């Protein structure tokens, strides 16, 4: 009888224990599901920037304005179609940036600016907000589409950033298109370099307002149907930069950041200030830790901290609810947005 009693006690204890641990497992699963579940998930959205700077109506002809707007619209169409067919935010960001990199209009890929020594050194980065993975390349001279190399670093290497010759060899092995450095030559950018060098020597002081003072980097943020965010940025850097100079664009947290739990950000502007201000992450951190809406977070950084430091430029940001901002403290920023159920919008000033 005593034996039966103790047996029943042990059995009851075991049942309790299993029940408890099953409950724990169940809770864990529920928690994970909750983390994946998005409260008020927003409509699929794609936001693009094509650089910020002294972009004013008087500095542009109607044809120039139209050419920029058309290219941004074309890029948005490509990226948004990917989101509409159920593709990932990551794919949408990458393909949109490739279109802009292949255009000579923007300071990324084909239209990159020159270093002081007359070369093109390109930087790019990508971040997947669904799992906080990221990839970047810096100072590359022969990779046709640096954003594809950034993705390859993220997905096919244990690293986040590769630079120079190592990045180029990695891209070649990853099967990406390699071009002769002369592919990146455009007369317009070369003339910009010549003017900058002349002016440095105390020359005529002539500037082309449209090409010499604007930054021209490209960046994209996207929200897909699964509620995942991604951000990417690509650039030739700054006109007349020292060779070897690396800006904010390939630096995660400065030029690019994405986290489903806060927002996706891509920056454009004075890279040195964006690096020191950790601008993209600063905005995301305000959203995550202070509970700010992205509008307030972006405004306070771009018109507050960044400006107080002396930095100019802008950002695009997007959260999981589909809220987006295109904020800048310069005269203009090439930018556009498409959100499900709404008309595409493209602006410069
Ligand atoms: N932020 C870029 C850099 O400093 C320039 C730009 O945005 O146009 O390299």
What does this structure look like?
There is one protein chain. This protein is α+β, with helices and mostly antiparallel strands and 349 residues long. The chain folds into 2 domains: 1-40; 43-347, Glutamine Phosphoribosylpyrophosphate, subunit 1, domain 1. Helices cover 41% and strands 20% of the residues. The strands form 2 sheets. An 8-stranded mixed beta sheet has the order 4-3-2-6-5-1-11-12. Helix 4 (146-156) links the parallel strand 3 (133-140) and strand 4. Helix 3 runs antiparallel to helix 4, helix 4 packs across helix 5 and helix 9 (279-290) crosses helix 10. The relative contact order is 0.17. Residues 10-36 have low confidence and may be disordered. Aspartic acid binds at residues 51, 107, 215-217, 235, 237-238, 247-249, 268-269, 271, 274.
CATH architecture of the largest domain: 4-Layer Sandwich
Structural class: alpha+beta
Shape: globular
Rg to the nearest angstrom?
Answer: 24 Å
Q: Which CATH class of the largest domain is shown?
A: Alpha Beta
In the CATH hierarchy, what is the superfamily of the largest domain? Answer: (Glycosyl)asparaginase
Helix content: 40-55%
Q: Unreliable segments (pLDDT under 50, ≥5 consecutive)?
A: 10-36
Strand ordering within the main sheet:
4-3-2-6-5-1-11-12
Kindly estimate the percentage of residues that lie in beta strands according to DSSP: 15-25%
How many E-type strands? 12
Q: How many domain units?
A: 2
- The name CATH uses for the topology of the largest domain is Glutamine Phosphoribosylpyrophosphate, subunit 1, domain 1
Largest sheet features? 8 strands, mixed
Tell me the span between the first and last alpha carbons.
89 Å
């Amino acid at each position: 009888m005593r034996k039966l009693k103790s047996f029943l006690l042990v059995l009851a204890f075991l049942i309790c224990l299993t029940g408890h641990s099953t409950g724990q497992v169940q809770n864990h699963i529920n928690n994970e599901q909750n983390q994946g579940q998005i409260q008020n998930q927003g409509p699929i959205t794609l936001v693009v920037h094509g650089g910020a700077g002294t972009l004013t109506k008087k500095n542009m002809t109607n044809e120039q304005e139209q050419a920029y707007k058309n290219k941004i619209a074309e890029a948005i169409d490509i990226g948004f179609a990917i989101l509409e067919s159920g593709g990932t935010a990551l794919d949408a960001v990458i393909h949109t940036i490739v279109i802009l990199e292949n255009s000579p209009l923007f300071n990324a890929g084909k239209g990159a600016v020159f270093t002081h020594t007359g070369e093109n050194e390109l930087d790019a980065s990508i971040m997947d907000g669904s799992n906080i993975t990221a990839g970047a390349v810096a100072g590359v001279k022969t990779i046709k589409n640096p954003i594809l190399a950034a993705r390859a670093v993220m997905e096919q290497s244990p690293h986040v950033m590769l630079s120079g010759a190592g990045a180029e060899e990695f891209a070649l092995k990853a099967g990406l298109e390699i071009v002769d450095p002369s592919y990146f030559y455009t007369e317009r950018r070369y003339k910009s370099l010549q003017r900058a060098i002349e002016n440095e020597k105390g020359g005529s002081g002539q500037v082309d307002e449209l090409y010499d003072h604007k930054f021209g980097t490209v960046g994209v943020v996207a929200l897909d149907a699964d509620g995942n965010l991604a951000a990417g940025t690509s650039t030739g850097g700054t006109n007349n930069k020292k060779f070897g100079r690396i800006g904010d664009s390939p630096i995660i947290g400065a030029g690019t950041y994405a986290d489903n739990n806060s927002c996706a950000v891509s920056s454009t502007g004075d890279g040195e200030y964006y690096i020191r201000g950790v601008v993209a992450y600063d905005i995301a951190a305000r959203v995550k830790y202070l509970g700010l809406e992205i509008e307030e977070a972006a405004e306070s950084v771009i018109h507050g901290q960044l400006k107080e430091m002396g930095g100019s430029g802008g950002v695009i940001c997007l959260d999981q609810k589909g809220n987006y901002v295109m904020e800048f403290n310069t005269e203009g920023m090439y930018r556009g947005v498409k959100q499900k159920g709404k008309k595409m919008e493209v602006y410069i000033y």
